[in-house]
Structures are given as structure tokens and as C-alpha cells.
Write a structure and sequence with these properties.
Residues 185-223, 246-307 are annotated as: Disordered. The structure is a single chain. The protein has helices at residues 36-39, 50-59, 80-83, 103-119, 136-148, 154-165, 172-187, 202-247, 252-282, 299-319, 322-334; strands at 18-21, 27-30, 64-69, 88-91, 126-130, 287-288, 291-292. Helix 4 packs across helix 5 (136-148) and helix 5 runs parallel beside helix 7. It is built from 11 helices and 7 strands. The N and C termini lie far apart (109 Å).
């Protein structure tokens, strides 16, 4: 008969049951499932048993290959619930105090993970890790594996774990120990530990990642330079077009408009001359007894006056001077 705890772990229900898979690994972290007896003491909707765990993983179209239990007791659930689903179960007793000083636990954890990876034929099977809340001890050992066996930096490992789990490692001593472990790995003259996925040494795997980042950065910089040169080319073509327009008296459309205006003005002048000749022959206009006759204003003169008013309005609005605009409004109102 399996002995069970009678008390729910402190603050256990405040943590999310299951995190996401850590990128570029097969690790998935969760808090410890509880047996039915303990779940009866938890508010409805917050239960988390082995059945809940397996269902949540299956709903993501994922599957567990192994579960590594890091709690310091075996009373939270029955391991046979895991093994009965053809999932491997590994138990490592990790005490809450003095944990980071136990290098033997770190070595046992790393060996267990390496052993599973080497013998597993299913490369998609996930490695489930849990302690009581799935944060501190789980985070420390997973990050140590990423640092010691995969050559990650401590910053990369901690950030990846916390983002995937959804909770940060709460103990500062664990964070300090991880940075110290990463520094010791960097100071080692040789790296005999192999990358579990590629079979390369840590140095080779790290150099490959750096080359990939440089290549990605180079491609991005090349695209930026290409876009910049394209913009310069467009601006140069625009400047060339403006220069041609200045040297040739404007664009063809502008030249056509100017020719139309000149033709219209010449036509207006012709109409004025004809009107004057008619006035002289008919006695309308001209002078009578020393006074100028009051002849009607021609259509050409009206168009020319209107054009001048519009040009004046445009120039005033372009300058944007308030007093000139007000004067123009008064002048137009007086008309």
C-alpha cells in the first residue's frame, strides 16, 4: 500500500499546472500531480492529478516519454499511474535545504536525461520534470543540464526556462549558483560533454550557433543596405528629373500648359483689338467731348482679372500671413 500525504503542499495551487516545452529541447515542466485524496481538499477547478497531466499533454498533440520526480517524498501520487501508461519514471530525492551543494544530484540528473535521450527511439517524446511546484528545484536542474551538457549560457538557460514555465526561479541562491556553474564551464580548457541532439562537442555546438546568428545578422544588414540604396536611387532619379525640368523649362505637361496660356492670352489680345476697332467705327467707347466713353468690359478682360485674383489668393495663402489673409477676405467681401 502506498502511503500518501495528508496535507496539500503550501502555495501549490498558486502555480500553473503545466508549462510549455523549452525551445530547442524536449523538456516540459509541471508541478507535482496529487492523488485523489489531496485533490479533494483543493477548490473545485484547481485539481491536478496524473490523469489531468496526461490529458493536458494529449490535448497539445504531445506525449511524455519520461517523468523525472524531484520531490523529496513519494507520497503525492502513485508512480504506477505513470508507468501504467508506458511512460518511464525516474525518482531523484532532492531535499529543500542544501540542494545546490549536492553535485551528486546534478550528475545523477544529467546522466538520467542523457541515458533516456540515447536509448529513446521516439525523438518527439517529451521529458517531463517536476518538483513540488515545478519552479525552483526543477528550474535549477534543467538549467544545469542546459549549461553543463548543451553549452548554453546561464542567461539563456534561465530565460528559456522561466518563459516556458511561466514562473521565475524564486530563490536567488539558485540563480547565483547557475551563473557560477556557467562560469566554471567556460573556464574549463576542454569540453568532453557532447550535445545530446547533434552529437557535437559543446564548443562546436556553440560556434555553430554563433555562426548562425552572424549569418542571420548579415542577411538582415544586407537587406537594410539594399533598401537604403534603393531609396537613394529613387531620390537620385527624382533629382535628375527636376534638373532636366529646370534646364528644359519644365516638364512636357508644364510646357503644354504654358503654351495653352500664351495662346489664350494672344487670343484675348486679338479680341480686345477687334473690340476697340468696332468701338471706333461704331462710335462706342473712345472719347466724346473730351470724356472717355463707358464701354462694357470684354470677356477676355474678365478672365484675366479673375486669373490675377486667383494668383493673388494663392500667393497669400502660400505665405500664410494672418494679416494678409484677413485683408484679402475684406477685399473679396467688398467686391
Amino acid at each position: 500500500m502506498v502511503r500518501t500525504n495528508r496535507v496539500v503542499p503550501k502555495e501549490w495551487d498558486k502555480y500553473t499546472p503545466l508549462g510549455a516545452v523549452i525551445p530547442r529541447t524536449r523538456f516540459i515542466i509541471f508541478k507535482t500531480p496529487l492523488n485523489e485524496s489531496l485533490n479533494n481538499r483543493i477548490p473545485a477547478g484547481r485539481e491536478f492529478t496524473v490523469s489531468h497531466l496526461l490529458r493536458m499533454v494529449a490535448e497539445r498533440n504531445q506525449r511524455l516519454g519520461i517523468v523525472v520526480d524531484l520531490t523529496d517524498t513519494n507520497r503525492y501520487y502513485d508512480k504506477r499511474d505513470i508507468e501504467g501508461m508506458c511512460i518511464e519514471y525516474e525518482k531523484l530525492y532532492c531535499p529543500g535545504r542544501g540542494f545546490i551543494e549536492r553535485d551528486d544530484i546534478v550528475d545523477s540528473f544529467n546522466r538520467a536525461i542523457q541515458k533516456f535521450i540515447e536509448k529513446s527511439d521516439d525523438k518527439e517524446a517529451l521529458i517531463g520534470i517536476h518538483c513540488t511546484r515545478g519552479v525552483n528545484r526543477s528550474g535549477y536542474l534543467v538549467c544545469r543540464f542546459l549549461i553543463d551538457c548543451l553549452g548554453w549560457s546561464s542567461h539563456e538557460a534561465i530565460e528559456a526556462f522561466e518563459k516556458a514555465r511561466g514562473h521565475g526561479i524564486g530563490k536567488g541562491t539558485y540563480i547565483t549558483a547557475l551563473h557560477k556553474a556557467a562560469k566554471e564551464m567556460r573556464d574549463k580548457p576542454s569540453r568532453e560533454v557532447m550535445d545530446s541532439d547533434s552529437g557535437e562537442s559543446i564548443d562546436e555546438a556553440r560556434k555553430k550557433r554563433k555562426r548562425k546568428r552572424r549569418e542571420e545578422g548579415g542577411n538582415e544588414m544586407g537587406n537594410m543596405i539594399k533598401n537604403f540604396l534603393g531609396q537613394l536611387g529613387q531620390e537620385a532619379s527624382q533629382l535628375e528629373e527636376l534638373s532636366w525640368m529646370e534646364n528644359n523649362g519644365g516638364s512636357p505637361l508644364m510646357n503644354w500648359e504654358r503654351r495653352e496660356e500664351r495662346a489664350e492670352e494672344e487670343g484675348d489680345e486679338g479680341e480686345e483689338e477687334e473690340a476697340e476697332e468696332e468701338a471706333q467705327t461704331s462710335g462706342i467707347g473712345g472719347t466724346v467731348d473730351g470724356y472717355e466713353a463707358a464701354g462694357d468690359e470684354s470677356a477676355a478682360q474678365k478672365r484675366r482679372a479673375r486669373r490675377k485674383r486667383l494668383e493673388k489668393m494663392f500667393n497669400v495663402m502660400k505665405r500664410g500671413r494672418f494679416h494678409e489673409i484677413q485683408a484679402l477676405r475684406r477685399e473679396m467681401g467688398g467686391e
